[in-house]
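User: What would this chain look like folded?
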Amino acid sequence: MHASRGLRARLGAFIEHPRTQAFIIGLIIFNAITLGLETWPRAMAVAGPVLDAMDGIILAIFVFELAAKLVAHGLRFFRSGWNIFDFIIVGVALLPSSGAFAVLRALRVLRALRLLSLVPRMRFVVESLVQALPGLGSIALLLVLFFYVFAVMATRLFSADFPQWFGSLGASMFSLFQIMTLEGWADIAREIMARFPHAWVFFLVFILLATFTVLNLFIAIIVNAMQSSHEALKAEHEKRELDMIRAELRALREDLLQPRRQAESRDG
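Assistant: Here's the prediction, encoded as structure tokens.
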């Protein structure tokens, strides 16, 4: 039992070692490059079998890495969302990629997304975005409400004269989305203003609300979530350092008290 536990601990230490993690990161980047080369007909004509062989070797290394993590951590492996993410990404690559499943071959490039779980800075950004999802959901609902209200107004006002943009509720929402991105909105506005001179009020209010207000709220919530995550990580790091200092002080205190205890034991 103890030998098995020691083997699992050594295996876990090997997999989590910075050098091993750096090797896996380099392998992911190299694999992303080779997968990109497979889309180049000339590269496939020159080194197609070599690229396929390297892809198989890299996949085998990824499978070994995940298997080692499973052995080292046991069922605790699935308590981490990042481990589950890696498991799914590598598992997709193991599915058959011929016949009806040929489309899955294109999904091999998803392995490049493993960088999100291995690079701490990228993992921090993703975790911050996940924490911001509740607030982003509320802003998204507010944006949808704005879109619906203005789409109904635009359809009633402009559908008869400009059906190509506002002929139906769906067409109006699509056109308003284009206007929100500021893509060609001036051309649409000028053409409508030639028929409705005061239409600039409608477009101005919509752009101010949707583009310069609501979308900036998205950015504000994401920045706030990243700041909160940074403060939490900083507090955790400080707590870890404080625990280490306390442990060292306890060990030093034990070392200082040990001679006195030995002397008292001899006197007793």
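The mean pLDDT is 83. If you want, I can go into more detail on any region.
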